[in-house]
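Next comes one such specimen:
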Amino acid sequence: MKKIGFLSFAHWSQSPGSQTRTAADALQQSIELAVAAEELGADGAYFRVHHFARQLASPFPLLAAIGARTSRIEIGTGVIDMRYENPLYMAEDAGAADLISGGRLQLGISRGSPEQVIDGFRYFGYTPAEGSDHAAMAREHARIFLDVIKGEGFARPNPRPMFPNPPGLLRIEPHSPGLSERIWWGAGTRATAEWTGQQGLNLMSSTLLSEDTGVPFHQLQAEQIRRFRDAWKAAGHRREPRVSVSRSIFPIVTDLDRAYFGSARGDQDQVGSLEGGTARFGKTYAGQPEQLVKELADDEAIAAADTLLLTVPNQLGVDYNTHLLDSVVRHVAPELGWR
């Protein structure tokens, strides 16, 4: 494990105990937590994107703001639902945010997960082509996005422009060199992981896989990673791919930790239904640091990945989540090979 960061869903609600009660709270606290994570020595600040929900929906203003407030930490998403995206407008936003951060953007994209409304992407003006479906539409949006962020010209210039044009076809601006190598695909199955490797995208795998073979979650995820790397190698890509996995890890070092997460000790994988199919959900790790080190050392997917993303309970507030991250990077991560 080379890098460790956090993944926040940035929920907000008026529920009792929530310290994140409005959208403004969620955005401002996300920036504050990213700044705190960088000061602790963590490597990444990642954010989930959902539409029609009291969570983050438009990530690029937030990513740009974090980029302006930090200097080292990676800034990313996990993941952007490409069914909703205008690929060219997204390329402009991504290029701007990456330039503001000095090239630290790590964008996780995918087909997306079940949303708050039925076919929400239709309200955004996107409908799958005849004979296609929403998953194929997401991949087509991703293909266009990946194509235009390479920086090659494709648009025919106006012969009488308002401002002088450079020679040749025009590209999306602003262009950020290197961004195309920092795009990740959120894969929920082994087959999608193989497709990700073939495309030359980095692999992002969460605490949920939308398939189940009866083996423990971490073993199924480790197989997914192996298939990704095999597909990457077979495709002949030259650079070294990156792989991230997400985990819910809560070291219990204070009475408050015990009050929040003491009941999660001994948690197990869960198998359930998602979009009409069987899915396997990874367990929550909670306990004394030495116990967590022992359990996590047996996690085959963490061993296979280069980046570990810690899902954080953002509604407990910036101070508590800073404490949580500090507990992991101080007491757990070094024993797993970090740094």
Summary: The longest strand covers residues 243-251. The longest helix spans residues 217-235. The chain has ten helices and twelve strands.
